[in-house]
Amino acid sequence: MPAVLDDITSEILDLKKSIGATILAHYYQEGEIQEIADITGDSLKLAREATKVETPVIVFCGVLFMAETAKMLNPSKKVLLPDLKAGCSLVDSCPPEKLHRYQEMLRANGRKFQTVTYINSSASVKALSDWIVTSGNAEDVVRNRVPADCEILFVPDQHLGRYLQEVTGREMILWDGSCMVHEIFSVHDLVKMKRTNPGAQVIAHPECPRNILEHAEFIGGTEAMIVYVGKHKEPTTFLVATEPNMMWQLESRSPQHKYLGVPGITCACNKCPHMARNTLEKIRDCMRNGSPEIHWQPEFDRAKEVLTRSLLNPPVPVAVKVSAYPHGD
Ligand code: SF4
User: Fold this and answer.
1) Distance 257 CA to ligand 1 centre (A)
2) Which value, to the nearest 10 degrees, does the dihedral of the CA atoms of residues 157, 136, 42, 180 take?
3) Which residue has the CA at smallest separation from atom 2 of ligand 1?
4) Which residues of the chain have pLDDT under 50?
5) Spelled out in words, what is the top-level CATH class assigned to the domain 182-261?
6) From the centroid of its chain, how far is CA 129?
């Protein structure tokens, strides 16, 4: 919490008390939003934490599919999303009708498969799935939970799917979706940064394409990155290939290190425009107005079943970890 509260932060904290709200914020939110949150986390942590919220209201500072997940897992709560237009390019890349047609085609061809779906997907797509995964539990589900005699249709993130193929050795049918942020890191700039920062370590999210992951000393989701960096006691330079707001969280937890964001091809900051839709003003307004609110949709019933058995009743989750790819240089 900031030492001196500005007006808007004070208003948010007052509203939080008066309406009985818990604020959840994703690591890709601006630092000023993470700072006022009760809980920060990646998709998996926030989904699990949402089930434990006891206040009547959850204010979800993230994108739509995350707020929907919180509603599905804790349906008696009023879930507010500061901006309903906060979407995700991965969600957009996998329309449910298209997935349904593809599944029907595979079945018509006699293929026995299960659909493993990254949590960055719509509720309708989750409802068409056998398993929901995040970068934190994906390896475990692929290794241990999908029967060995089934093929895997992995949707919608082709890069995470390809990475999982490499680390588990399990072949998959990959959907061709991708994250607009992680897809466009500049390899050219990354190689240059490695040269100018000898001894620096590259930490990369598995949503990045292979040409970036090949240069990484560590590959993992945001929660796994925090743990990895925290294990380094000596001051180290980390070149970070994920949404740049993550560096706020890393700097807060392990300030002994230096963090440099890997730039995008077209944009030096490479921030997620969907996450950036949430602002302190919109957080205050949604608490004042009690909207935008996530309402229960018919597809939530089936999606909730899949979410619950995938994320809430798993065996011990296995973090996606150390690179499966040979280092590029
Ligand atoms: S960073 Fe990528 S995956 Fe995450 S919300 Fe933005 S577009 Fe979606």
Assistant:
1) 26
2) -20
3) 179
4) 315-329
5) alpha beta
6) 18
